[in-house]
Each structure stands twice: as C-alpha cells, then as structure tokens.
C-alpha cells in the first residue's frame, strides 16, 4: 500500500514535470504550495506540509521560501535548468538562484529591465491592464491614446509614469522625450486658463497676454502628455484637442494664421464615469481604456507585498530597522482601506511616525510597531470576520511573531508601488526637530510624546481629508478620546445611548456618551478590583425614576452583549442615575478638588504632577507654610472652594488629620458641600482628580472610593525602600504552556496587565516553548535572575518557585509574585468573588475576540463531561488548565491556526479510549463555535489531562 509521503511525492513530481523552461522565464517563479498538493492528493494540508518538508530533508524536493512557501521536485528542476543541484534544498531568492544557474539570461535580463516587471500584481490582478498598456505604447505609428480609470488611490498616475518608462525602454520615444503631467482640476473653473496652459497663447490673446508663450503641448512634443483628472477638462479644451489627436497639429490661443505640429501620446486619468463627463466625440479618439482595480479587489498576497514594500520604504527613509508584530501586519491585511493604495501607504507612514517617536523618546535600537500603536480604524481589521481571514494565516509565516525590515533591503529597489503619495516628505525630520527642541527646554518625555502625537494626528486628519471618507474622519475625531477610553467601551456606550434616546425621547450629546463610557470603564475597574459597592441613594433614584429605570435595564443588556461582560443587577441603579442626571448638553459639572499641605510648595508640587499626568488644570492647591495661621488658611480655603464649586461639591485632600475639620466648617459657612480625605499621597491625588472628572461621579461616591483605595493605592509603587537597593539588577519571570509558545505569550501578557509595576522593578516576563528555548534564556540571564515560573509546565529550575495557572486564576499566585518582586507582604484581602466571575475576568484579559462569558460556559460544560467520562476527580488545577487551554484553542482554530503534534497517530493508538472520550466531550465546543478540533489539538488535551 502506498504511503502518504509517496502520494505527496508523486503529486509534486507530476505537477513539476508540467512546468517548462519558457514558463519559468516568463514569470521568474516556480513551485507548488501545500494547499495545491493537498487538493490534488485529498490529504490534510498540515500533513502534506509535514511530508513535503521531509522530502526536502531526503534531497528529493526543493523548498522555495516565499508567501506561500512552495516546493518543486528536485529531479524535474535539474532537468529543466540542465544543472546538477548541489544546494541544501532551500532556495531563499529565486531571481538570484536563476542568475547563478545562468538560466535563460537573455529572457531574465529582458524581464528585469521591463519597468512593468517591477509592478506589484504584474502576473496577478494587473496582468490584463499591463498587456493593454504595452499594446497602447507599441501600436504604430505613435501608440494609442489611453484613458486610465479607477477609484482614488489605486495608482493611476504612477501607472501612466510606468507606461512612459516602457515607451523609452522599447524605443518608441527617445530618452530625451518628456512626460508632462497636467492636473485639469487646478484650472477647472477657468477654461481660458486651461487652454492657455495647454496650447500656449500669442500676444494680445487676452488681457495680460503681453508676449507669446508656448504651452505644455509644445514641451510634450515627442513624448507623453498625462491629463490627470481629465473629467475636469472643459468641452472647449476637448474640442481643441481633436485636431491635435487627428492630425498632429494645433493652434495657440488667439492664433488664426498658422498651425504648430506635435507628436504626442495622450494619457488621461479619471475616477469618474467616462460617458457622463467627456464628450462622445472626444472619447472616440481615445481607443484604449485601462481600468485599475481597487485594493479590495486585489488578492491578499499583493496587499501583503504593498504592506511590506511600504514598511521597507519607511525603514529606508529613517535609516532605522523597523520591527513589526505579526498582528499589525494582519490588521493591515484585513482592515477596510477605503483610500486604496494611497491610504494604505499613508496609514503605514503615520504608524511608523508614532513608532519613530517612541524610538527617539526612549532611545531604542529599532522602531517597534505593536498593536497598541494602531488607530482604531486599522485595529478593527483584527476583529473583522473577513471572508479572507483564513488566507491571512496562510500568508503569514507560522511561528513568526515579528517581521523586521531593514534600511538596506534590496527588495525595495525592485518594486514599483503604484502610488507616490506622501503625507509629508519631512515628517520624520519634523518629529526629530520638535523632539530635540522640547527635550532641550526641559519637557518630560511624556509631555513631548503628547505634543508630537497631536502633530501626527493632524497629519492623519489631513490624509483622511484627502480621501474624504466620512466614516474614517469620524473615527479620527475620536483619536484623542481613545487614548483614555477603550474604543470598544465607547462604541458600546454609544449604542446604548442611541437606544436610550429612542425610549426616553431625548437627545444625548457626545459628551454624555463619553460620560457613560467613562462610567463603564470605572465599573470594569471595580469588577477587576473586586470592590463593587452600591449605595442606598442610588436605589432611591431608581425608584423615583421609573422610565429611566426601565431603560437602564435595557441598556445593561446592550452593554453586556456588546462588551461580553457580566454587569451586576445593582448596576441598574447607577445607570438609572446616569440617565436621570446626566447633562444632555455639551457641558457637565465636575467635583472640585483642592490639595492642602504644609510646606512652602508641597501642595503645588503634588497638584502639578496630577494635572500634568491627566492633561488638565482641574486640581487646585493651597500651600501652607509652617508659620501660616490656621484662621488664614481656612479663609483662603473658603475663597477657593467658592471659586471652584460647580454645583457638585468640593473635595479637600489634606496631608494632616487636623485639617479634616475644614470640610465641615466650610460646608456650614460657604454653603458648599465639602468633604475631605486625609494622609494623602501623590497617587491618591491623581486618582481623586481622575475620578472627579467623570460626569456621573458624586462627591459621596468619590470619598467612599478613595477611602477604600487609600490603604493600598500606590503600595506596590512605593514598596519597601530596602527592596529598591538592587533594582538595577534585572529579574525574569518565565511563562510556559503545554501547547507551546503562543499560549505562553498570552500568559506573559496577562501577567504584564496584572502586575503593571514590573517595569519599575526591572522585571522581564519571558515566554518559553516548553524547555526548547530555556537554555538560550538561561545563558543570557542565569538561574539567579529567574524568580518564578508561571503557567502549565514546571521547568524544575532549582530554588525557583513554580506558580501553576490555577493559582494565578483562583489562588494567591498574584500575591506570591508581588512578594517575589517587591519583597512586601503588604496585601489587601479582597472580597471573595465567585469562581465563574474569576474565570470570566481572566478570560476577558486573555481572549482577543471571543465572548468570554460564552467561551467559559461552553468550555466549562465540556470540562464537566470530560471528567465524568474519564472518571477524573474534579480539581481547581485541572479545571483552570482545561478552560484556559481550550478557550485559547478555540480562538486559534477559528483563525485556522492549528498546532502540530509529533507522533499524534502513535499517541492515539496508545490511548484510544481516552482519545475517544475527549473527542466526544469536545462536541459541544465544535457545535457552539462552528469548528472541528483536529487530532493534533486533542493530543495536547490528552497530555494536559494525563499529566495531572
């Protein structure tokens, strides 16, 4: 019986034998990807890929690196190229390889010199357009006049420039001939001016014509005239071009006694419907029409080429390597790019500008582009259920998390991008100039980033204005807002208030949407902090406002659905209060905040820090020198309270308990509700100011929030001084997962979100792939630097504690890590949450797009079925690992990202009974999410259950 590898090899050999030398010379490529061979053999793609790589190792096949990776039968390649292949079986660069074999040099040189050969899509989406263009240039005697059509940003002007280069390359026009570009829209409102620019004029032709002047047609004689936005060419100009196009002669404006001759090929470019904007008699004189497709209509592999070329270009511009996370590339492949290639290039330029700012600010070795830099309209690509989503995973290299583009990348010079639009040729120069200026005058890095980010946003708005797309502009107007509010939360709040408007018959302003979004953000923080407390006053409001109460229940459901969170029923009171009290206009009142502290400038310094970090001037300060009398301090405070009160009361933040008496006295004397918090610190002031700016916040709630936070806010930041002595010495936390690096990375990200003080303590969180890259890490850091291993695989490093994922989720793993890092035992015991809420909160952090509530419920049911079928005793450790692993697995399978598993067939045969029961217990997961769990993934689940 034929083995699977033999079937794959026969298929590869049959496909390879059909390829001719002429075919290779035509498109300079060859080979077949695993998907193609999978279809031929009807063998699973992952298995085909495995067998192909094995054939390469056996010296029977050649592997050609690219996207996708391709393979070719070695014997067939040797026969076609008439060579004896002596390489290692992997071809990195096809062009270099073919050159080194001296294969078809004439064909290769001809191909490489052809300007069209460097256009992205030459053998793909632009194949027909290029054939038309070549035919138009080569048609005797002077070529065919041509119209290039397509939406804004597809590269019509650049395509015309390549036609000009091709005409010189083929000798149809001389090397000295010019390409004259004229934008018809610039003079569309003045037909006489267009005629004079194109045809020239004689002295006296119109007022101000004091001497004869040649036009652009004379300059273009012997070459090509490109009329950009030709639909703006007035009928008079079209008619005057008739004679030139028919007989090669023309007259200047105002000329009646003679003709001039010119041999010109005319190319027009337009976004409009030709029949509705140009005279039919004019159109009949332009026999060739070339339509360029939009970016959306082009295949994803071409879009990837554009993305990579633009990143290479930016690396070349700034002379710095650019390191890009694969999810950034994925987002660019999938987002709605309405402005086509032009917008894609502009978006990449501006993203690189932001990365360049970080590179300058933090003195990095390279520009780093991660998903947190992505504007919302690009980030949305990661959330889309695009029809080509699975193809993206085929294009991007498996297991490669980052792509690096260097300034000297040779591929850049070989590519024509069909777009020459730059947001600003001096963008990086301006950023550098401003950065150095503000640094020299003493601005902090955070402040410099804020200033320059505003400039980048202006560039972005300018870019989007060019494409004039309302949806994009609306998103960008919120760009500043999205720095402090998660876009997902904002959009959920907007949806909820649209419903509320319909039900309550009133209009909520954009400021009201922001207020609700900030409220929901605070709620999510309280859920994470396990500090949900509700008050009697809120229940009274709910009872006294039946209409708002009813709507509050509805929008709670909307928010739960949109955000995938579980909102406690007690929150309905809060939402009722919001709907009842929120200002529907553009302004809202805020709680006043005043810092009072002893010393010459203590209060002022603390207030300045809070105002600077929060980009506000809301926090006021009263400094109290030690010789200031209490009565004088009180009077000064009363005056300031009256001044800052906006109707919601004033909070006094004082450094000594004796000043708390001021609040009650001021309430009585000034008739302004005033409360105080004592023993304040800078973190407390920052938190107080931040929450005082929330539209829904009341003074009593703010005081309660701060009193709860006061014992521990900033405790990790301050720590114990003696533990700071060795802070310059870096420490490492390793994260592991049984299913490999991907899940270990997720655990690492979870820790970074949970332990947001790790950078201050110089702690690195490093994912490891089981023990495979452990030696490399330990070679760099040594055992002494590793303070903990967190995850599902214990690496058994001597004297290093292992914290299982279950302890992190439902135990005291976080407290153990805090103690290891800070040396502090200071830990505030929080109110106990239900197991379900703990898991859901954790999955909210871990999952990218799945609804964590649905994921938890479905996987938990599967877990229950699994332990019953296998007769395993329920335990927190097994459950947490099962839920964590399978939720991550679901996301991967939806994205068609399947983990390999060595010797899976052998494992199944050995543990057939366990395999069958696990497979049965996964049925509800497959049905709920529309996926099929492959055997390789089941292998990891068996390992997970079998190693407890």
UniProtKB/TrEMBL annotation:
Residue ranges occupied by any PTS EIIA type-4 domain in the UniProt entry: 590-733
Ranges of residues in domain PRD: 484-589, 850-948
Superkingdom of source: Bacteria
GO cellular component: membrane
Gene Ontology terms: biological process: phosphoenolpyruvate-dependent sugar phosphotransferase system; regulation of DNA-templated transcription
Domain annotation Sigma-54 factor interaction: ranges: 119-353
InterPro entries recorded: AAA+_ATPase (IPR003593), P-loop_NTPase (IPR027417), PRD (IPR011608), PRD_sf (IPR036634), PTS_EIIA_man-typ (IPR004701), PTS_EIIA_man-typ_sf (IPR036662), Sigma_54_int (IPR002078), Sigma_54_int_dom_ATP-bd_2 (IPR025943)
Key words of the record: ATP-binding, Nucleotide-binding, Transferase
GO molecular function annotation: ATP binding; transferase activity
Protein name as it appears in the record: PTS system transcriptional activator
């Amino acid at each position: 019986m034929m083995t699977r590898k033999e079937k794959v090899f026969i298929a590869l050999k049959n496909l390879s034998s059909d390829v001719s030398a002429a075919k290779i010379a035509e498109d300079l490529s060859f080979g077949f990807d695993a998907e193609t061979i999978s279809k031929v053999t009807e063998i699973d793609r992952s298995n085909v890929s495995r067998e192909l790589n094995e054939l390469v190792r056996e010296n029977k096949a050649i592997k050609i690196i690219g996207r996708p990776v391709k393979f070719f039968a070695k014997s067939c390649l040797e026969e076609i190229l008439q060579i004896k292949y002596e390489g290692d079986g992997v071809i990195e660069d096809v062009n270099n390889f073919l050159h080194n074999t001296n294969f078809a040099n004439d064909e290769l040189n001809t191909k490489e010199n052809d300007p069209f050969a460097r256009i992205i899509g030459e053998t793909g989406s632009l194949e027909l357009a290029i054939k038309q263009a070549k035919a138009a240039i080569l048609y005797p005697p002077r070529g065919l006049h041509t119209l290039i059509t397509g939406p804004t940003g597809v590269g019509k002007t650049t395509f015309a420039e390549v036609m000009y280069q091709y005409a010189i390359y083929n000798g149809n026009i001389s090397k000295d001939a010019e390409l004259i570009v004229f934008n018809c829209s610039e003079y569309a409102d003045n037909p006489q001016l267009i005629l004079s620019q194109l045809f020239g004029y004689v002295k006296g032709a119109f007022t101000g014509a004091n001497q004869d002047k040649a036009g652009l047609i004379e300059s273009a004689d012997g070459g090509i005239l490109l009329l950009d936005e030709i639909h703006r060419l007035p009928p008079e100009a079209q008619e005057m071009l008739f004679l030139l196009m028919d007989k090669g002669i023309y007259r200047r404006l105002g000329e009646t006694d003679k003709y001039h001759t010119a041999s010109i090929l005319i190319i027009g470019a337009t976004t409009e419907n030709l029949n509705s904007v140009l005279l039919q008699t004019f159109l009949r004189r332009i026999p060739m029409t070339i339509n360029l497709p939009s970016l959306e209509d082009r295949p994803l592999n071409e879009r990837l080429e554009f993305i990579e070329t633009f990143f290479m270009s930016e690396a070349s511009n700034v002379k710095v390597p650019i390191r890009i996370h694969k999810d950034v590339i994925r987002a660019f492949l999938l987002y709605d790019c309405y402005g086509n290639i032009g917008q894609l290039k502009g978006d990449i330029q501006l993203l690189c500008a932001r990365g360049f700012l970080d590179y300058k600010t933090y003195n990095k070795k390279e520009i780093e582009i991660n998903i947190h830099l992505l504007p919302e309209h690009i980030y949305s690509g990661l959330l889309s259920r695009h029809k080509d989503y699975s193809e993206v995973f085929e294009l991007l290299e498996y297991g490669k998390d980052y792509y690096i583009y260097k300034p000297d990348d040779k591929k850049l010079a070989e590519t024509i991008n069909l777009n020459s639009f730059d947001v600003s040729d001096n963008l990086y120069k301006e950023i550098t100039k401003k950065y150095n200026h503000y640094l020299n005058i003493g601005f902090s890095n955070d402040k410099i980033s804020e200033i320059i980010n505003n400039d980048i946003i202006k560039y972005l708005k300018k870019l989007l204005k060019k494409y004039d797309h309302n949806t994009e502009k609306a998103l960008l107007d919120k760009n500043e807002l999205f720095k402090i509010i998660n876009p997902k939360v904002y959009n959920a709040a907007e949806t909820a208030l649209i419903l509320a408007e319909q039900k309550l018959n009133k209009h909520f302003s954009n400021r009201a949407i922001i207020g609700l979004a900030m409220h929901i953000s605070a709620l999510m923080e309280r859920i994470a902090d396990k500090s949900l407390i509700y008050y009697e006053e809120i229940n009274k409001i709910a009872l006294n406002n039946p209409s708002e109460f009813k709507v509050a229940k509805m929008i709670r459901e909307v928010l739960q659905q949109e955000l995938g969170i579980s909102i406690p029923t007690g929150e309905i009171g809060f939402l009722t209060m919001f709907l009842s009290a929120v200002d529907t206009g553009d302004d809202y009142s805020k709680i006043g905040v005043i810092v009072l502290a002893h010393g010459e400038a203590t209060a002022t310094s603390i207030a300045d820090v809070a105002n600077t970090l929060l980009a506000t001037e809301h926090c006021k300060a009263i400094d109290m020198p030690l010789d200031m009398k209490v009565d004088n301090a009180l009077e000064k405070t009363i005056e300031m309270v009256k001044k800052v009160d906006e109707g919601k009361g004033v909070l006094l933040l004082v450094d000594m308990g004796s000043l708390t008496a001021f609040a009650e006295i001021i309430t009585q004397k000034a008739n302004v509700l005033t409360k105080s918090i004592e023993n304040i610190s800078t973190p407390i002031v920052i938190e107080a100011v931040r929450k005082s700016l929330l539209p829904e916040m009341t003074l009593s709630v703010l005081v309660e929030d701060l009193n709860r936070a006061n014992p521990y806010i900033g405790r990790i930041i301050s720590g114990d001084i003696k533990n700071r002595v060795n802070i310059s010495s870096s420490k490492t936390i390793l994260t592991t997962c049984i299913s490999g690096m991907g899940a270990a990375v997720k655990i690492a990200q979870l820790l970074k979100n949970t332990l947001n003080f790790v950078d201050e303590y110089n702690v690195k969180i490093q994912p490891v792939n089981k023990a495979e890259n452990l030696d490399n890490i330990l070679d760099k850091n040594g055992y002494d630097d590793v303070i903990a291993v967190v995850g599902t695989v214990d690496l058994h490093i001597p004297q290093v504690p292992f914290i299982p994922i279950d302890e992190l989720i439902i135990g005291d793993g976080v407290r153990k890590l805090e103690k290891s890092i800070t040396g502090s035992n200071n830990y505030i015991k929080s109110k106990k949450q239900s197991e379900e809420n703990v898991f859901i909160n954790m999955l909210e952090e871990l999952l990218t797009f799945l609804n964590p509530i649905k994921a938890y419920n479905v996987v938990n049911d599967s877990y229950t079925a699994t332990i019953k079928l296998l007769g395993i005793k329920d335990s927190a450790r097994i459950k947490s690992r099962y839920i964590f692993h399978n939720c991550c697995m679901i996301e991967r399978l939806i994205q068609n990202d399947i983990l390999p598993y060595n010797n899976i067939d052998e494992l199944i045969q050995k543990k057939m009974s366990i395999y069958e029961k696990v497979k049965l217990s996964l049925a509800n997961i497959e049905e709920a999410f529309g996926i099929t769990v492959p055997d390789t993934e089941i292998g990891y689940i068996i390992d997970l259950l079998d190693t407890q």
